[in-house]
Design goal:
Strand content: under 5%
Order of helices and strands: HHHHHEEHHHHHHHHH
Structural class: mainly alpha
Strand order of the largest sheet: 1-2
Number of strands: 2
Largest sheet: 2 strands, antiparallel
């Protein structure tokens, strides 16, 4: 770290110098009457890119093999590689050298490398989850994990230690996840869609310019802030409503109908999570509605339809594939949420569809299982990777389904 900024500055100066040298050589040749096949700047770009790639390659090689060269000489090797390859690039400044084509190939190669990084990262995630999940399924049956009704992952770590035998039935976790997701979707889908319709069809331009950024601010609020809001405001409000409902309605009818009076509940987490994903639904749906061809609106108005009838009978059916995709993408975002659930719904793995009870989700359990000093040989810790694999498959399936719906049912308008 001591030499990082000086070395980075030296590499930048080297690349700039190589660019200037390549361009100057091309300008000199052009002034001498040579007919170049590319503009002089491209010869400089080629030499500069060559020097930068050489420096990047040297840094990568030294990072992979740190003992290859002494750390004292490593910076000089990186700068030397950049200078040497830059000199080769400068020497290529000839009338017959197609510098522009080579620069475009380097840029395309850079784009391809960025895409490859994303693909390799995805496969790396899948591989790590799959390998650790297979280790877990060697200890616990996959059928017990997928169809078991009790989740209690605590096990004895040593032979002389008293502990539970461990129960790894993930149905309560999946049920809690989908319960909170369903509540969030019930809250967010109508509100987000109505906001999108208003902004797209009814709001004046100056109102739209104010309202839409304000709505999209919700997407930038940290999730821990939503968690505080759920714990301190929404949760107590739901508990108060439950107390009134029990006292005034349910208990007089039948005490067995009383609902839990708790601050942490699936309803509190779902409501706040629904508020969090409103901007995703409203923004994507608004873009889809505004992308609907103008002649559909004009044709509907020409036939005597009102604005509401046009929205209901023409625009919504035409934009339905995009709206469905927006809903599924928002659900994928909600499934991966952790902080709101931890603070608003708790960590209890209850198999219940009662929204007033505390439940947990897959992401919350993953955090709980991997927090602190853990042994990666125990079934308790390895179960987090199995949960992560299931979560990855579910979210990936939802994203694929969203893209399939959009591509399958997208209407083509001339």
């Amino acid at each position: 770290m001591t030499y990082f900024f000086p070395v980075l500055l030296a590499i930048a100066l080297c690349v700039a110098g190589v660019f200037a040298a390549g361009r100057s050589r091309a300008v000199t040749l052009k002034a001498a009457g040579a007919r170049l096949v590319a503009a002089p700047n491209y010869y400089g770009y080629f030499a500069g890119w060559l020097a930068a790639l050489a420096a990047l390659g040297a840094v990568t090689l030294l990072s992979i093999s740190p003992g290859l060269i002494s750390p004292v000489f490593a910076p000089f090797c990186v700068i030397g590689a950049a200078a040497a390859f830059g000199a080769v690039g400068v020497a290529q400044a000839k009338p017959s050298f197609h510098a522009r084509d080579q620069v475009e190939r380097i840029i395309i190669g850079g784009f391809l490398a960025c895409s490859a990084i994303a693909v390799v990262t995805t496969f790396g995630i899948i591989g790590s989850l799959l390998l650790e999940s297979l280790r877990f399924f060697e200890k616990v049956s996959i059928f017990e994990f997928l169809f078991g009704l009790k989740w209690s992952p605590q096990t004895a770590l040593r032979a002389d230690q008293i502990g539970q035998s461990g129960a790894f039935g993930a149905i309560p976790i999946f049920a809690g996840t989908f319960l909170i997701m369903a509540i969030a979707l019930v809250v967010a889908a109508p509100l987000g869609l109505m906001i999108a319709i208003y902004l797209s069809e009814y709001a004046a331009d100056d109102v739209r310019d104010i309202v839409k950024p304000i709505v999209e601010i919700l997407a930038g609020v940290p999730t821990v802030v939503y968690g505080f809001f759920a714990l301190l405001t929404v949760g107590p409000a739901i508990r108060g409503a439950a107390e009134w409902l029990n006292r005034a309605v349910l208990v007089p009818i039948n005490p067995a109908l009383a609902v839990p009076e708790t601050t942490q509940s699936a309803l509190a987490a779902g409501v706040v999570m629904g508020v969090m994903i409103i901007p995703f639904i409203s923004s994507l749906s608004d873009d889809v509605l505004r992308a609907t061809p103008r002649h559909l609106r004009d044709g509907s108005y020409a036939l005597g339809a009102t604005k509401f009838e046009t929205v209901r009978n023409v625009l919504l059916p035409a934009a339905l594939p995009g709206i469905a995709g927006a809903l599924l993408l928002s659900v994928s975002r909600a499934i991966g949420e952790t902080m709101i659930v931890v603070m608003a719904a708790g960590r209890a793995a209850n198999l219940s569809l009662n929204p007033f009870e505390a439940v947990t989700t897959v992401t919350v359990q993953i955090v709980a299982l991997l927090t602190g000093d853990q042994e990666f040989d125990s079934a308790k810790t390895l179960s987090a990777f199995a949960l992560g694999l299931v979560l990855f498959i579910v979210t990936l399936s939802l994203n694929i389904l969203a893209l399939w719906i959009v591509n399958k049912y997208r209407d083509k308008y001339d």
